[in-house]
Specification:
Ubiquitin-like (UB roll); 3 helices; alpha+beta; single chain
Length: 67
């Protein structure tokens, strides 16, 4: 993993409902979006049902913007 970076993540519904807030600020030391999603679902277990299908695939309504 790389150096730790501070991330600001803005969440829309239904993700904000699963987390309980519309914005997160986290320190993250991973280097891929997949690692970030795993980190977030570990920290916010309800988010897993919103991010992944029953077969473990990422849902088709996730949009990631960088910067």
């Amino acid at each position: 993993m790389g150096a730790s970076m501070k991330l600001r993540i803005e969440l829309t519904k239904p993700f904000s409902d699963a987390v309980g807030k519309r914005e997160l600020e986290i320190d993250f030391d991973g280097s891929t979006v997949e690692q970030l999603l795993k980190f977030l679902t570990y920290k916010y277990p309800k988010l897993k049902d919103e991010l992944y299908t029953e077969t473990g695939e990422i849902t088709d309504y996730i949009i990631v913007f960088v910067n």
